[in-house]
Write a structure and sequence with these properties.
- The complex is a heterodimer of chains A (472) and B (192).
- Chain A has 23 helices and twelve strands.
- Chain A has 472 residues and is of the alpha/beta class.
- In chain A, β5 and β6 form a beta hairpin.
- The N and C termini of chain A lie far apart (65 Å).
- In chain B, the strands form three sheets. In chain B, strands 1-12-7-4-2-3 form a six-stranded parallel sheet, covered by helices on one side. Chain B has a four-stranded mixed sheet with strand order 8-5-6-9. A two-stranded antiparallel ribbon of chain B has the order 10-11.
- Chain B is globular, with a radius of gyration of 21 Å.
- The chains are: A alpha/beta (472), B alpha/beta (192).
- The interface between A and B is large, with 96 and 72 residues.
Chain lengths: 472, 192
C-alpha cells in the first residue's frame, strides 16, 4: 500500500523537529504574537453567546449521529447531488483521489486550475500529484499563496502561513511577484488581489474542499473570508470538490449549529465575510459541471476505534492550536503533517494507521495534557483522553521496551518508602552531571527518557529528608 | 474487485458505530434584534450602513457611476443620472463596472450578515462578486434576528451567498484586514 501523504515524507519525529523549532526565536515570536491575538478575540466572540455550551453539545451530538449513520447519509448525499446534476466519485485513499481529480482536469484539457484552500486536498498531496501529471494548481487563499510562493510548508489549519510575519511575507511577494510592496497588511492584500485577478477571470477549472455537505439536500458549504472562494466557486466552467467522508451533516437545520460554532471558534468573528452554498448545478449561475470526490484515506479505520473516532467530529476550526502551549512554542511544522497541534496529534496517527511509523507514534506525546484544547473545542472532542488512549496503543504496539522496563522499575521503586528514599539519594548525585540545573542526557536506559525531555536536576536534599530534619 | 464506493461503505458498516442519542437542541433559536441591531453588527465589520425611508433619494449617492442592476430591481430604484448596466453582461463588463445594486433574500441581525439567493433583484452570483462596490438594500421585513431563523427562511437548493462585511483576510498575523478579492466596499441601506 502507498504511504499516506498526510505526513510529509522524511519528516523527523516530533521531539527532534521541536528541538530545532524551539531554537528559532523569530518563529516563536511570530507565533506568540499571532496566537495571543486570536486567543483574546475568540474568548470575546464566545463570551457574547449565552448558549455556547448548548451549541457545543448539539454540535457534538450531530456529528456523533453522522458517524453512527455514515453509510446511509453518504448514500443519501450521493443521491441528492446526482439529482441536482452533480457527479459523485469515491476514493479509498489519497492515490485514488488524486488520480480521479487529475483525470477530471485532463478531460477538461486544463493545464492550470485555481484552488480554494482545502485541508482534504493538502492531506492527499493533490497539488504535487497534479503537477506530476502536468496540471499546475494555483492556491488562491492568501496564506496558502504565501506558503506556495515561499516553497514552504503549512503550519496552521486556518492560516497556513501563521509562522510568517509581515516583513517575511513582503520579501516573498517581492521576490516571486516581481512587485514593489510595503509590509502593510493592506498593501500585501492588494498585491495578492492584482496577482490573482486575471487567473480568476480566465481559469476554467476550480478545485475546492468543503466545510459541510448537507445529506438531505445535497448542498455543499464553504466558509471563507477573502472572496477567493467565491471566485473559484462561481466563475469557472467546472468545479471539483474534494471532501472527507465525515464532513456531512444530516439536514439543513443542522447548519444553524455549525454556522454559529465555526466562525467564532476559528477567526473569532460573529460570521466570516463569505459563506457559499451550492447544490449540484444551477443553470445560468456558476459552474455547469460539478464533481464531488468523497475520500476515505484512513477515516474508516479511525471510525473503528471507539475512543479515537471522536477525532472525526473535527470541523477544522483550529481553536485547539491557538490555545496549545506546545503548539505555540514548537510551531506547526514540527508535527510533520498538514494537521498540526492537538487535533493533529490525534488525527494524523489515526489516518496514518501505523503506530510503528516513528513520526506517527511520536505525535500523541506532543502534549502536556493541560486540557485547554478540550475546553475550546466547538464539538467537544476530548483530545487529552484520545492522546492518552493513543499513547497506550503506541506502547502496546512496541511491546517490551527500555521505557516500559524503566516504568515498571519506577512502579516498584515508588511502591516502598525506603526504596524511594534510596533512589532519591542516588538521584541527588546526578546533580554533578547537570548543567544549568538541567540534565539533558542520562546513560541508558535513562537515555530513553532524556532523548525527548530534559530532566531538572534533583535538589541537594529531598523534601522527605528536609521534613525529617526540621519538623520530624 | 469491489468498487471504491462499495468498499468504503462496507468498511463503515464493519466499524459498527453504535447509534447516537437524539440531538438535544438546547440553544436559542429565536433572537430579538431588528433594524437597530443589524445596523450595529453590519457597521462592526466596517461596512457603511444607512437606515433610510426613501430608497430613490438614498440612491443619489450612485449618480455619475456605471452600476450593475440585476433583473427584478424595482423601477423606482433606477434613478436618472446613473448609467445602469443590465444583463446579459460579460465577465469583463462586470469587472469594469463601478459597482452593483441589489436587494437580498434575508439579513441576520445577530451577526450582521446579508444573504443573497439569486432571486428577485439579486441576479447570478458573479454580479455581486466582480464589481468592487456593492450596495445592498434590505427591507425591515427581510431581517431575521438569529442564524437559525435565517436558515429556516432560506431555500437550501438555491445558490446562496452569506455576506458579512467587505472582503477581508486574517492571514497576516491573524489580524483582520479589509479588501482582498471580493468587493472592497459594502454599503447597506436598511429601509424602514
Amino acid at each position: 500500500m502507498a504511504r499516506n501523504p498526510v505526513t510529509w515524507l522524511g519528516s523527523p519525529t516530533f521531539p527532534k523537529a521541536a528541538k530545532t523549532a524551539l531554537a528559532d526565536t523569530q518563529l516563536r515570536q511570530n507565533l506568540r504574537k499571532a496566537t495571543g491575538t486570536i486567543r483574546g478575540r475568540r474568548a470575546a466572540a464566545v463570551a457574547e453567546m449565552t448558549d455556547w455550551e448548548q451549541l457545543r453539545v448539539a454540535g457534538e451530538q450531530i456529528k456523533d449521529d453522522v458517524l453512527a449513520r455514515l453509510d446511509t447519509l453518504l448514500v443519501q448525499l450521493e443521491e441528492s447531488v446526482t439529482a441536482r446534476g452533480g457527479t459523485v466519485h469515491w476514493a479509498r485513499d489519497a492515490e485514488e483521489a488524486n488520480r480521479i481529480v487529475l483525470d477530471l482536469c485532463r478531460a477538461e484539457d486544463a493545464q492550470e486550475v485555481v484552488k480554494v484552500k482545502s485541508m482534504a486536498t493538502a492531506e492527499i498531496g493533490l497539488n504535487e500529484a497534479l503537477e506530476a501529471g502536468g496540471v499546475h494548481a494555483i492556491e488562491t487563499d492568501l496564506a496558502e499563496l504565501i506558503v506556495q510562493l515561499g516553497d514552504d510548508r503549512p503550519s496552521h489549519i486556518l492560516v497556513p502561513a501563521i509562522h510568517r510575519n509581515r516583513s517575511e511575507i513582503r520579501e516573498i511577494f517581492q521576490r516571486r511577484m516581481g512587485v514593489e510592496v510595503s509590509d502593510e497588511p493592506a498593501d500585501l492584500a492588494e498585491a495578492a488581489r492584482s496577482y490573482l485577478r486575471q487567473k480568476f477571470l480566465t481559469t476554467k477549472v476550480a478545485i475546492s474542499g468543503a466545510n459541510f455537505a448537507v445529506a438531505d439536500t445535497g448542498s455543499i458549504v464553504v466558509l471563507e473570508s477573502e472572496g477567493n472562494g467565491r471566485m473559484c466557486l462561481t466563475l469557472p466552467d467546472t468545479l471539483i470538490t474534494v471532501m472527507g467522508i465525515e464532513k456531512l451533516v444530516p439536514s439543513w437545520q443542522d447548519l444553524e449549529v455549525f454556522l454559529q460554532l465555526l466562525p467564532r471558534s476559528s477567526t473569532a468573528e460573529r460570521m466570516n465575510p463569505y459563506t457559499s452554498v451550492w447544490t449540484g448545478v444551477t443553470p445560468g449561475d456558476g459552474p455547469q459541471r460539478f464533481h464531488l470526490v468523497l475520500i476515505d484515506n484512513g477515516r474508516t479505520a479511525t471510525l473503528k476505534d471507539s475512543v479515537g473516532r471522536q477525532a472525526l467530529r473535527c470541523i477544522r476550526c483550529s481553536a485547539c492550536l491557538n490555545v496549545c502551549p506546545v503548539y505555540e512554542r514548537t510551531g506547526g511544522q514540527s508535527y510533520g503533517s498538514v494537521y498540526p497541534g492537538p487535533i493533529g496529534a490525534i488525527l494524523t496517527p489515526q489516518l496514518v494507521g501505523d503506530l510503528h511509523d516513528p513520526l506517527a507514534a511520536s505525535l500523541p506525546y506532543a502534549s502536556s495534557l493541560c486540557g485547554a484544547c478540550f475546553e475550546v473545542c466547538p464539538v467537544r472532542i476530548d483530545i487529552p483522553s484520545v492522546l492518552t488512549h493513543l499513547r497506550a496503543e503506541v506502547v502496546a504496539a512496541k511491546g517490551r521496551t527500555p521505557e516500559s522496563i524503566a516504568m515498571a522499575a519506577a512502579a516498584w521503586m515508588f511502591a516502598s518508602a525506603s526504596r524511594y528514599e534510596k533512589a532519591q539519594k542516588a538521584g541527588s548525585l546526578a546533580r554533578f552531571l547537570a548543567k544549568d540545573g538541567k540534565i539533558t542526557s542520562l546513560p541508558w536506559p535513562g537515555s530513553k527518557w532524556t532523548s525527548s525531555r530534559d530532566v531538572p536536576a534533583p535538589p541537594k536534599e529531598s523534601f522527605r529528608a528536609w521534613w525529617r530534619k526540621n519538623r520530624g | 474487485m469491489a468498487s471504491a464506493r462499495e468498499e468504503i461503505l462496507n468498511r463503515i458498516r464493519s466499524a459498527k458505530v453504535p447509534a447516537a442519542p437524539q440531538v438535544v437542541r438546547g440553544y436559542n433559536t429565536k433572537g430579538t434584534g431588528g433594524v437597530e441591531l443589524l445596523a450595529e453588527t453590519v457597521a462592526d465589520y466596517r461596512a457603511i450602513v444607512h437606515v433610510v425611508s426613501d430608497v430613490p433619494e438614498a440612491l443619489k449617492r450612485l449618480e455619475g457611476k456605471r452600476i450593475v442592476a440585476p433583473a427584478g430591481v424595482p423601477d423606482e430604484w433606477l434613478i436618472d443620472g446613473v448609467t445602469w448596466l443590465r444583463e446579459p453582461l460579460s465577465i469583463e463588463e462586470l469587472d469594469r463596472s463601478d459597482g452593483v445594486l441589489t436587494g437580498c433574500a434575508v439579513a441576520i441581525a445577530d451577526t450582521g450578515t446579508i444573504v443573497l439567493d439569486g432571486g428577485e433583484a439579486q441576479g447570478r452570483r458573479a454580479l455581486t462578486l466582480l464589481p468592487d462596490y456593492h450596495l445592498c438594500v434590505v427591507r425591515a421585513d427581510q431581517i431575521a434576528a438569529s442564524v437559525p431563523e435565517a436558515l429556516h427562511r432560506l431555500e437550501p437548493t438555491r445558490p446562496l451567498t452569506f455576506i458579512s462585511g467587505p472582503s477581508a483576510t486574517s492571514d497576516i498575523e491573524l489580524n483582520r484586514v479589509e479588501g482582498v478579492h471580493g468587493p472592497r466596499t459594502l454599503e447597506v441601506l436598511i429601509v424602514t
